[in-house]
Design goal:
Rossmann fold, four-stranded antiparallel beta sheet, 308 residues, alpha/beta, 9 helices, 12 strands, 29% helix, globular, eight-stranded mixed beta sheet
Length: 308
């Protein structure tokens, strides 16, 4: 993982007897847009929360996280929380959970800019709002903005402390296609201007294909495939990724029915001794149940499967 901005290796999250994240492993390069994809419940958001020590109460994390070459134990919440805001910022799916309805947008951004050490927080807030296409919106309250405008305001707030990594958790899921495109183009523009890296969490393969440089795929709390976006989507090596891509492309079986992923994802409370996808996989063998497959790779493309 040398030379990476951030890497996670064997990351686990436990909440009581449940294990929503069993083995999350991936890395993000400097200036890279990384997509973390998978169905709902695959452990994507919980993985992101573990990176910045924002897990729910009574949750515990294990594993290794490396940031700028410095290794941090995933259980070291003090060191991870110190990265939050100044080094790693997060945009949530619902802006209303991050924007305080009692304060004007400009004031909220100024406070973050001041924490980040801006010489003139007011000017920095105005500059960020202008860059986000919200010039003059600083005096408005969140309820006076549309959903798309709130997402833009949230982006300006997330960048106010000048972080190096932005985590965008399903930030376009409630937007229409035109607003989604506008929001993602704005994020990519800001990435270029600020030498920013992006961890984009999404269930949408189409979104990852359009905007990500690389992709990591999660199923049942485990990372099962990772590599350059074009290679992973054109030549998926893991059966789960293959079926996800087929579903997104609305491919049909020989009998004309749309391709679907049968079965269900294992719940966090279930003990899974082998591959988390084995119970749904059309290629599963008995040995798939005996233990988690080791990583196999083809250069920068890797996957956890006995096939491929």
């Amino acid at each position: 993982m040398e030379g990476k901005l951030l890497s996670a290796d064997g990351l686990r999250v436990m909440i009581g007897k449940e294990e929503p994240v069993r083995a999350s492993s991936f890395s993000i390069d400097y200036g890279e847009a990384k997509a973390l994809i998978g169905e709902s419940g695959s452990g994507k958001s919980m993985t992101a929360l573990a990176l910045i020590a924002l897990l729910p109460e009574h949750a515990a994390a294990e594993g290794r996280i490396a940031y700028r070459g410095t290794e941090i134990d995933a259980s070291d919440t003090k060191r991870l929380s110190a990265l939050r805001g100044r080094e790693i910022a997060m945009m949530s799916q619902d802006p209303s959970s991050s924007l305080n309805p009692a304060y004007r947008i400009g004031k909220q951004i100024r406070r973050i800019a001041a924490i980040g050490g801006a010489e003139d927080p007011r000017m920095e807030a105005e500059r960020l709002l202008e860059a986000a296409g919200l010039g003059g919106a600083g005096r408005k309250y969140p309820h006076q903005l549309s959903g798309g405008m709130c997402q833009r305001a949230l982006l300006a707030m997330a960048l106010a402390a000048s972080p190096s990594l932005l985590i965008a958790d399903e930030v376009t899921s409630s937007l229409d296609s035109d607003t989604e495109r506008s929001a993602m183009e704005l994020i990519l523009t800001m990435m270029g201007e600020r030498a920013l890296s992006l961890l984009m969490i999404s269930h949408s393969i189409a979104l990852a294909a359009s905007y990500a440089d690389s992709i990591a795929v999660m199923h049942g709390g485990c990372t099962v495939e990772e590599g350059p976006a074009a290679e992973v989507l054109r030549h998926p090596a893991h059966p789960y990724t293959e079926l996800l891509a087929a579903c997104a492309a609305m491919k049909r079986d020989p009998d004309g029915t749309l391709v679907t992923i049968g079965g269900r994802m294992p719940s966090p409370a279930e003990k899974v001794p082998g591959c988390t996808f084995a119970g749904r996989c059309p290629y599963a063998e008995r040995r798939c149940m005996d233990g988690m497959p080791a990583w196999r790779s083809n250069g920068s493309h890797r996957w956890r499967c006995i096939h491929g």
